[in-house]
Write a structure and sequence with these properties.
By secondary structure, the protein is mainly beta. Helices cover 0% and strands 37% of the residues. The protein folds into two domains: 12-72, Beta-clip (Beta Barrel); 75-130, no CATH class. The protein is built from no helices and eleven strands.
């Protein structure tokens, strides 16, 4: 998979604060995939221009009979910026499959959910803090 999140450090007393979510048996979710949540509490790989809620802690193979997956929700991860780059300290959202963008570039602000810890140029991988806003 391209552009998967890479763990730098899992934070919290449960190391990464993994949360178990439902997922469709037919869905494949590679480890490190940025995921969004659909109703009801269903993890799906993010597409474009969505808020992401967690990072797949393990691989979910399509049609393997499993209907749940854990997502890391607290840690520092290497994530890839979009073509516009990101400024250190910016709040971030998703802007494509495993690509992040400054939140206000999408017209949304999720204060503190994902914070860029470094400045990124176009399509550059940088460290980001996830889960600081809750």
């Amino acid at each position: 998979m391209a552009n998967e999140a890479v763990i730098i450090e899992l934070l919290g007393h449960t190391k990464g604060r993994p949360i178990r979510f439902a997922c469709a048996d037919a869905t494949a979710i590679p480890k490190g995939t940025l995921c969004t949540i659909d109703n009801p509490r269903l993890a799906v790989p993010m597409a474009a221009d969505t808020d992401f809620e967690g990072i797949a802690a393990s691989e979910k193979v399509a049609n393997d009979g499993q209907e749940s997956i854990s997502l890391y929700t607290h840690g520092i991860f290497d994530l890839k910026s979009d073509a516009n780059g990101i400024t250190a300290g910016a709040s971030c959202d998703a802007n494509g499959i495993n690509i992040i963008v400054t939140s206000d570039a999408n017209g949304r602000l999720k204060a503190g959910r994902v914070i860029a810890l470094e400045t990124a140029g176009a399509n550059e991988v940088i460290a980001c803090l996830m889960g600081s806003g809750f």
